[in-house]
Amino acid sequence: MISMPPFQLLCTVVGLLLLPLHISSADPDPLQDFCVADLKAPASVNGFPCKPEAEVTSDDFFFDGLSKEGNTTNIFGWSVTAANVLAFPGLNSLGISMNRVDFAAGGLNPPHSHPRATETGVVIEGKLLVGFVTTSNVFHSKVLTSGQMFVVPRGLVHFQLNVGEEKALLFTAFNSHLPGISRPPNNSLCFQPFNSR
Q1: Is 177 a known ligand-binding residue?
Q2: Any binding-site annotation on 112?
Q3: Closest Cα to residue 62, out of 43, 87, 31, 80?
């Protein structure tokens, strides 16, 4: 029998236990061409189960919801149209989704975060103040106009405010088919709506 000092034995055992662990820094590659979501089935950890391939149609890969302007007649003067797996089942398991965000003059997309995705956005029309707060409590913001882009790292609280005189339009994209949203309670927002004088 081979005799080892206890510390060396412990290090060897820990090393052997760690060897078989598979370490991955990104989502795994899909094993099939597509997996159109079967929204009638319960969601699993990795998304919705796939529709049987015989039931998949061309319509599963196209979505026209982002072409319609949203209704901004609410207290915050904004509207979001989501193109995530729940509205567009062809996105299931592909790690991507989008939103259309419409703003009335002075409209605000209140502070929120996306726990499962980084957000990037492009201002299509108007003038938006975009900002986020880091976990170190540092605030970053900038006023953006048509054609300018921003990124908000996953999980950070952020907002968009229309600081222009006219309506604004923003398209956002996420690296998740269902990025999720988390909002602080509205009673914690210490402001009056920006479009009231």
Answers
A1: no
A2: yes
A3: 87
Residue 102: both structure tokens together: 């419409």
**Is 125 annotated among the ligand-binding residues?**
no
What global pTM score does this model have? Answer: 0.77
174: amino acid identity, one letter: F
Domains with residue ranges and CATH for the chain: 53-188 (2.60.120.10)
Q: Which amino acid is at 79?
A: S
User: Long-range contacts made by residues 135-144, C-beta under 8 angstroms, separation at least 24?
Assistant: none
Closest CA to 93 of 150, 31, 138: 31
* Tens digit of each residue's pLDDT (9 = 90 or more) over 131-183: 999 999 999 999 999 999 999 999 999 999 999 999 999 999 999 999 989 88
Is residue 53 helix, strand or coil? Answer: helix
Residues 6+ apart with CB under 8 A from 107: 72, 76, 77, 78, 161, 162, 167, 168, 194, 195
Using CA of residue 85, residue 88, residue 90, residue 91, what is the dihedral sign? negative
H helices, E strands: number in the chain? 1, 9
The answer to whether the annotation marks 22 as part of a ligand binding site is no
Q: What angle do CA 50, 68, 128 make, to 5 degrees?
A: 105
